[in-house]
Amino acid sequence: MTKIVLPHSGYRKLIVYKKSDVIYQGTVVFCRRFLPQYGDRTVDQMTQAARSCKQNIAEGSAAAGTSLETQIKLTNVARATLDELLEDYLDYLKAHGGAEWAMDSEKKIAAREFAKEHSEWEDWKPIFESRPAETLCNLMIVVIQQSRYMLDKMLKWQEGDFKAHGGVRERMHAARTEARGESWDNSVYSMLDLSTTPADLEARLAQIIDSARRSAQSIKRRKGW
Questions:
Q1: Residues 180 and 141 in one domain
Q2: Which of 165, 183, 202 is the last residue of a domain?
Q3: 5 within a domain of the structure (yes/no)
Q4: Residue 204 sits in which domain range?
Q5: CA distance 103 to 99
Q6: What is the C-alpha separation between 160 and 72, in angstroms, rounded?
Q7: Residues 128 and 206 occupy one common structural domain
Q8: Does one domain contain both 150 and 208?
Q9: Mean pLDDT of all residues in the chain?
Q10: Residues 113-134: pLDDT tens digits?
Q11: Which has the closest alpha carbon to 22: 146, 158, 133?
């Protein structure tokens, strides 16, 4: 039987959600330590972008039960907000004389390995409370890049899931069709007994077809078709 409400939620177990929490918590600490608390819109922009990523992953997961389309849209929003936040960290480096670590540098490689192994905020909290701004910007850039990659893979999986299961209206139609078919099969089966032969079944089928045809003609007459 076609399921109308698909399995959903469980987002807290997703690695990308845990990384999005690191991004949000880390951004809050970064802004508190290195940006003015009043009169600078950058603080609001950065914290809202970081929060938007986390919240849209959660909301998309919750919506997946009835709307895969909504889930895809929200996942894409989460992906887009990371691009915005990435630009903020790059801008901070440029504005304060910092530099992004080279892809093949020892610091970048070590940061990527640490980020792969640690997706819980508790592992990152001591770092964000003690390291200088340039280091934290580069660490955040690494986590954002890894999260963007994971969200890209998630989007591809969700697109495949949508192709396989369709939207909620399609599933509801399929479920109703299956239910009607099952009910019809049971009603016909109940009219048969142990002595029924294949010829009896064929005769019953002819009766059903004739009855359906006469019903259709009656409907057409009443509607003036």
A1: no
A2: 165
A3: no
A4: 172-223
A5: 12
A6: 11
A7: no
A8: no
A9: 84
A10: 999 999 999 999 999 999 999 9
A11: 146
- Identify whether 66 is part of a domain: yes
In a domain, 32, yes or no: yes
Does residue 2 register a pLDDT over 50?
Answer: no
How do residues 65-103 score in pLDDT, each as one tens digit?
A: 667 788 889 999 999 999 999 999 999 999 999 999 999
Which residue in this structure is represented by tokens 């049971």?
186
Count of domains forming the chain: 2
0.85 surpassed by pTM: no
Is 81 found in the same domain as 37?
yes
Residues 127, 28: one domain? yes
Distance CA(192)–CA(200), nearest Å, equals: 9
Q: Has residue 4 got a pLDDT over 90?
A: no
Do 160 and 213 lie in a common domain?
A: no
